[in-house]
Amino acid sequence: FVRELIYNNISSLKSMLAYIYNHNTQCKKTVINAPIDDKIKLIIANLKTCEIKLIPFMAGRVINFEKYIESLNSCNIDTQKIDNKCIKIKVIDKYIKQNNSVFKISVCDNKIKIQRVEEDYDIELDINSITQLAFSYLNTDEILILNEIDESSLINTQKELLNALFEKRINYIDELV
Predict the structure, then answer these.
(1) pTM, rounded to two decimals
(2) Which residues, in sequence order, are bridge partners of residue 104?
(3) Which of 74, 124, 153, 165 is most buried, judged by most C-beta within 10 A?
(4) What GO biological process terms does the UniProt entry carry, in alphabetical order (predicted)?
(5) Cα distance between residue 88 and residue 121, in whole Å
(6) Kindly report the CA angle at 78 between 72 and 79, in degrees rounded to 5?
(7) In which domain, by residue range, is 155 found?
(8) Distance between CA 85 and CA 131 in Å, rounded?
(9) Spans of the chain below 50 pLDDT
(10) 100 lies in the same domain as 158
(11) What is the count of structural domains for the chain?
(12) What's phi and psi for 153, nearest 5 deg?
């Protein structure tokens, strides 16, 4: 039983996998839990004999969109490159009514601000898409594709703002341990 593999280069990973493989008479099945962007699948010798399952292991959602955006001020977001930019997002949430609104997100004096507005919106996203952005599961390009949003409907500064606010990172939350 191997609980965790930690390696700092590809040859050490290959050595550990070879060691595990050498014990294949004792163990007929191997289960590997890895982050979605892990490169281990690139070095497994014969993927045809492998079964790969992507299993989301964490249930989460953005409960209060307004508070979530305000909380981004405490993150290490480089607001200088997005200063004086804004975007209006229409949020759709079928469970929490207070999230259903058009929100203007702007950056002024290196501070992220959000306010409800009664204006036309630049982009419409449901709370599931926002949650995927917030938890770094998907980046803005992937969200645009999944929601069939024409990228050209956003001006460059709006896309830059979305990319800065929702930068995709590796999520190391492991609730399987």
Answers:
(1) 0.68
(2) 88, 115
(3) 165
(4) aminoglycoside antibiotic catabolic process
(5) 5
(6) 75
(7) 65-165
(8) 22
(9) 177
(10) yes
(11) 2
(12) -75, -15
